[in-house]
## 1
Amino acid sequence: MCGIVGYLGQKNTKEILLEGLKELEYRGYDSAGIAVLSDGEFSSFKAVGKLVNLEEKTKDFVTDAFAAGIGHTRWATHGKPTELNAHPHVGASSYVVHNGIIENYAPLKKELQNEGVTFLSQTDTEVIVHQFEKNQKKSTNSFEAFKKTISELEGAYAILLVTKSEDDTIFFAKNGSPMLMGINAENEKYFASSDTPLIGQCSDVNYFEDGDYGYVNADEIVIFDKMGNKKEPHFTKLSTNKLSAQKDGYRFFMEKEIYEQSSVISDTLLGRLSEDAVVFDEIDTSLFDSINEIKLCACGTSYHSALCASYMFERHAKIKTSVEVASELRYREPVLTQDTLFVVISQSGETADTLETLKMAKAAGLKTLVICNVDNSSMVRMADASILTRAGVEKGVASTKAFATQVVVFWMLSLYVAKRNNSMQTQEIAEQISLLREIPKSVIVEDSMHERIKRLSKRYLHGHGFFFIGRDLFYPLALEGALKLKEISYLHAEGYPSGEMKHGPIALADPELFTIALLPKHLLYEKSRSNAEELSARDSTICAISPIEFDKADDFIKTKEHGHYMLEFFEMMVVVQLLSLEISIRLGNDVDMPRNLAKSVTVE
Ligand code: F6R
């Protein structure tokens, strides 16, 4: 998803912008660009593809004086990923970068074209710079023109704009897309669409609210809120712990993140378990007062962890639970009742569809909770309460450790609610807590297991599709396994409830249909096994993942003997992640930045 950086100061502007953009690479992008305004002169560079292409283009460009610079990584929404469509977009004497979508760009563009303006790109963003320059002609100063332009835009945006007539100024606006500003003792000003580019550069940051707009120059920081009232920036300290972007010897960030799961799950558990209770200091049990139902809402992998949560909430806490795909909930006019706790789940905390459902739930007067990996993200700031998953920065576009920690948080939360609702005996909760403490061990990647999966992967590079099948909690795990595989291998894969195959999909069974069967020992083993046998009898190629030998399988991945199905769940999660990883590597794909995907989907 698009990323924004901005810099105003004396230092090497080009390097600062490029370094900032590198920190946003993990979000996914297809082109990038920068524009630097110094002493009334603009220099602008754009390149399709990876940032090295932009670095190459700017290698002879030197920035050694006071400058206002803006930069952008683009993930195409309107128009193909071409150099012309890359940001910054140019007018006669201004440049703009933008994240989000300008919904009314078509009528604005038409009007500007009728007035003789020529558009260079197919983007919605380009209208901003031309509309601004149109307003500039009728305004006494550039800020007035900028303010008028913002009032004419509909949709979601984070915008930075620079213009020749005020060459010491960056104009900004934020509505529905994330943006923050950072400062330091050297009187430099930084902008970015997330914290990462600012860590190490700034001491303090101000997170803009929706509707904020204004400008900065060497002497001033001027912010107005959506009502047009001037407001003071609200600075908070920025973490100095810059997470290493290095892969620590792993081939891909995704691989590193799979291996990290044991330690991040330990972090997730840290300080949250006593002998017989789960402790969440960040929430109050009153959050569950008068609550008779939990509604979970998310997208993609986070949706799969929400499905896992629904099994656990009903099983442990005996509370009615429903799960919704955010993009569906938004428009289907759901009945939201006040006795429902609305829970959104998001790694990034910025996913547009999920964020909108959170706004809907708040507007309907529901209590809201977010399970999130990014502190200070839009969702964390908006929800009544939040629980952080503590997975650390996840750079691989295909989510792994974020999913793992989400499921851990949900398992803990189901026990927390169970205790509050007296739906489980103290002894039972204590037993579950002992199991929780065992998860970090269950997800350690053993060399022998990784080697076996590496070897097996060569047999799964073709075929006409994969079915990941499982029952109960292993059904959402099957969905997640299939999503991982399709994301990074580009092979068709589906997750299915094992018992549902005979109601249609089994018609596809033949040797070129690969079935990945999740067969835990401690949860519906016999039933799952006979479903896998049905597929084997129809000659589907079966790869069984189980601690129990399965003679009807073509391939078998033996997992360890665990005392409980939840520990089997976590080990099998690692197995399906590694299988996708190894298949993708063999196919020669970019595991960390798969085609067409973005890390944080901040558009609808
Ligand atoms: C899959 C993946 C996506 C995200 C989805 C929601 O590997 O990462 O499916 O899970 O885009 O993102 P968040 O969790 O940031 O709301």
## 2
Amino acid sequence: MFGIRYAGWAVLALASFAAVSVQAQPINNLVKTPPMGWNSWNVFHENINEKQIKEIADVMVSSGMRDAGYIYLNLDDNWMAKKRDGNGNLTHDPDRFPSRMKALGAYIHSKGLKFGVYGDRGLRTCHHYNNSNQFPGSESGSYMKEERDAKTFASWGVDYLKYDNCEPASGSNQQKDYERMRDALLNSGRDIVFSICAWGYQDWMPKTGNLWRTTGDIANAWKASATDWFRGVADIIEENEKHYANAGPGHWNDPDMLQVGNGKLTDNEARSQMTMWAIMAAPLLTGNDIRKMSASTKEIYMNADMIAVDQDSAGVPGHRIKNDNGKQVWIRPLGGEGSGKMAVALYNSSESEQTIDLNFEDIGYTGEVMVRDVWQKKDLGMVKDGLYSNVAPHHVTFLIVTAKLDPPEPFSGKAVDLPGTIQAENFDKGSSGLAYSDKDSENQGKVYRTDVGVDIVQVDSVDASKGYAVGYTNAEEWMKYSVNVKKAGKYYVFASVASGLEKSGFRLFIDDKAVTDTILIPQVPDWNTYSEISTETASIDAGSHMLKLQITGSYANIDWIKFCTNEKCEEENEEKPVTDTPKDKTPAADKSLGLATSLRYGVQPMQAFRVHSMNGAFVGTVYASSIQEVQMKIRTLVPERGVYLVRSKNGMTFQVRR
Ligand code: GLA
């Protein structure tokens, strides 16, 4: 449950978060974001075989896991035969992998996945060593065979090596053993991710591997006893956090594989593991039998916001900023400096429900920020100053917080001179940020901006010269523009617009007073065919004004609006007062492009009805599809009550009472 707790603070500003300094150069160009995939150990342990692994590959695709980002399929311990082949090379277990590793790798690659295997820096792998009676004389370790084994892996198409720490040779040096395998992989002719599994962070690791385990093995449990080699999820969260400053793109802390879906963690605990792994920029290696995933396990693994946090391209690992008896606040800056985006976890490590406060000032924001709840998959909208969340034991509230920012190009924020043209994306900047109101928290489709704000659509698909338009703009949403009116008087307004829906339109306000009725936008089938429409506003005084463009009815795209002093938008006529009584009693033919576009697509067209006073003076154009509609609209066009002459395009003249 959420609530808003803080009230009434100052103007919005975003504190910049210094990125964590990451000194080490990555060993290669791989895993710029933490690796994601599946590993066999947590669920199958030593019992792996090629049929089952191929089924896993199939399900990684059919379940959508691959497309969600889980691309590494990693075989853990015991894929290999006890003995090497006649040439001294590591080789497949003949009973369980009869088709051999190269063929398995090819199958995995054919599914669009990457192929991972496991090795050991000592004499035997952990499983072979821990079960010495079954594996006497096993030759599964790579000690002093690193070059050979790395080349073998490369020849099989291996993309990822997890390299364990069991049965070191006497007199060997751990760091040197890992460095030899690093160099062998770099020399293997293939890009292979190097995952160090040595159960604790050491300073040489960022220079040696792409990732390194920070703790003992993860148990299928929330908590373990302090002395147990196996660690619970909650224990690992505590232990891994200490190392956050050592990780970054290409070199990651590895708090071990995920236990979600293995039957012991509750859904709350499962969400906590995913949240904290994502906040800590940890590898997301699922460790369950994905062939039998429950709907809730799948939903937890596939949450797109959670994955986006984990995979954030800035690669800055998050860390804890507060721990008050298990009421913990964690943050992870997202998107690089100046993005205004941050992941926040309100994590309850205690055994009872807790109310956890989040004061935005504590995480560098003041005023209003946009908040999204990752697990509820819900936007909470703009929230001022702070919030609190009641968090169940072992659970977490996972938020993405975004500040309002100064706009990037193409927003100019400058006052536009009238007569003149306003490009729709040129919102007024003013002193308090962009002036707009958008109902959507995230933009959709082919957009210019991806954070807060109205959607900016590139309209190059039709005509590159059109640049950007304001798109996906929903009814009631609006943009404000500073205008500088050079010449008082009546203005003709032209606009380039498109809408795939009936009844879309817009309305203009000057200094919050409506100066037009709804101006309807002709419906087009593809949203991209912009047509020019025209109307006339009331008089505008000279000087500075705030012009508001508000969408009505339904979604609309607007490319530009142009204010002209005459019907033809000709400069030389600017001096001529447009309300002068014209001598010509036969109005000129309508030249609306909007009408032409409507007709072309066979949509019930709006007509341009020309309105005259009884003495024949032209007073304006009304867009409507019937004379009844004209009767309604004429009120916004002419201030005085009376009888007017209305002419339709085909020359019919009606008398309309206002
Ligand atoms: C070690 C590792 C585990 C797993 C097993 C396999 O314990 O830390 O992750 O790879 O070996 O035997």
